[in-house]
Amino acid sequence: MRHPWDQRLGVWWIAEDHPETPAIVESPSGRTMTFAELAAAAHRVANALRAHGLRVADTVAYALPNDVDAVIWQLATTEIGLRYLTLNTALSADEFTSILEHSGASALAVHPDYLDRFHSVPDGAGLRIVVGEPAPAGCPDGFVSESDFLAGQPSTPPADRTQGDAIRYSSGTTGKPKGIVRPLEERDPGAAANAHAIFGRAFDFRPLEGVHLVSTGMHHAGCQSFYLGALNVGQALAILGRFDAEETLTAIERHGVTTAYMVPTQFVRMLRLPTHVRNKYDLSSLRSVIHSAAPCPLQVKKDMMAWWGPVIWETYGGTEGPATIAKPHHWLEKPGTVGRPIRGVRVHILDDEGNALPPNAIGNVFIERIDGQSFEYRNDAELTASVHRGSAFTIGDVGYLDDDGYLFICDRAKDMIISGGVNIYPAEVEGVLLTHPAVGDVAVIGVPDPEWGEQVKAVVELVDEAEPSAELADELIAFCRARLAGFKCPRSVDFEARLPRNEAGKLIKRVVRDAYWAEAGRRV
């Protein structure tokens, strides 16, 4: 008998070779599935899409909650060469319409909870399905029920299968739709799924053992990459409908979770649980917890390592492509690093003129794919060209490579504050402020200053039990001054009830910053 590491891997092959292996062990709807059942459900949706006229390279958009259907539709579209577009369910009706128009979607699948935002759907999306029964009263015109859509369709593999891919819309900061697409590869879905398994194994996702926890938004590319990596090595998914700090710990203990993907804000919220609550749960099953999407404050990650042990991995990159991995032991040797380049990638640090900078010099981070993979922004050749220098591209970060080739990210280039000609990186200041017990969230921004150009301001969301006051503002400034150089510290502190973050955990700083620059007659 072959060792599990020698088995054929990937969802489709596991469904054949190990049909009774659990694929979904928890979901908000209460559904659980084996790999055979999951593959059959995906085949049925794929056959229905084909029967309704969709062909290779067409786009299917869906707005679905964290649950089994999000997995089924993703698998179904990619086994017949379609592009899937996972819509962030927090978007407004106008945002949905704008993205649907820009993507050229041919079909749209929507959960009943979100139908009220789809009364205006572009004509191109002629096929419209309500996923989840029953469809509510007042359902927008043109939508068909899931049962009618699937009627008579077999749960066997569709003919002429070929691998599809995503069209992903970056969270961005401009408000303009930015669809990222890659060339479709003509390859068998089984081979493509095996490639996802290789991706998972790079993070020590072990074949045919363990459970992967899904606790972030399943529309997000990072979450998808890792739950697909887990499924394709044969790990079951435990899907949470939304993140709750203690429920996450409960789920880890309940299922003996071995792997997970999270974002730093989740770490912050779990660390804020009372010690007696944190100590209630057995988390010893954890092997690989990966985070990305936003900078993780240094102390937060140190505290998580102290609590969970050396199981926390980090990956850096963007929707445009991955760049580095920081394994736990490497991060402990070099705290703050986001790791070294993955196979098939080089990282370059360039100045504003495109010249290479030496080790430890801060500059623009460029990622070069040397494995032949590429991307473009849909229908925007100018934007595509603007982020590229030759075959290398940037996602807008500044950082440096140390003498050993480890990458350190300082901040987003657009978030950098220049005060009196000195560069200040807000992420460093935010990392310090987040360790203060009264701070629930924080955005550090530059605001207009007639003498210095910009002045450092902290906009703070307090924890529930804290009250805003001038005395607390002074305390927070002093807290920073005890830990950072004076020029980096906030000159003033404002308090807000809630700071804007997207579901990937990224601060939407444009919204915070614009309020302070509106009267200045300039943006920075």
Automatic annotation (TrEMBL):
Gene Ontology molecular function: long-chain fatty acid-CoA ligase activity; medium-chain fatty acid-CoA ligase activity
EC number: 6.2.1.3
Pfam family, one: AMP-binding_C
Region (Disordered): 152-180
Catalytic activity: a long-chain fatty acid + ATP + CoA = a long-chain fatty acyl-CoA + AMP + diphosphate
Annotated AMP-binding enzyme C-terminal domain residues: 428-506
Protein name, UniProt field: Long-chain-fatty-acid--CoA ligase FadD13
Tagged with keyword Cell membrane: no
Family: Belongs to the ATP-dependent AMP-binding enzyme family.
Provenance organism: Mycolicibacterium pulveris (Mycobacterium pulveris)
Enzyme superclass (EC): ligase
Record flagged with keyword Ligase: yes
Record lineage: Bacteria, Bacillati, Actinomycetota, Actinomycetes, Mycobacteriales
Keywords (A to Z) from UniProt: Ligase
All residue ranges annotated as the AMP-dependent synthetase/ligase domain in the record: 13-367
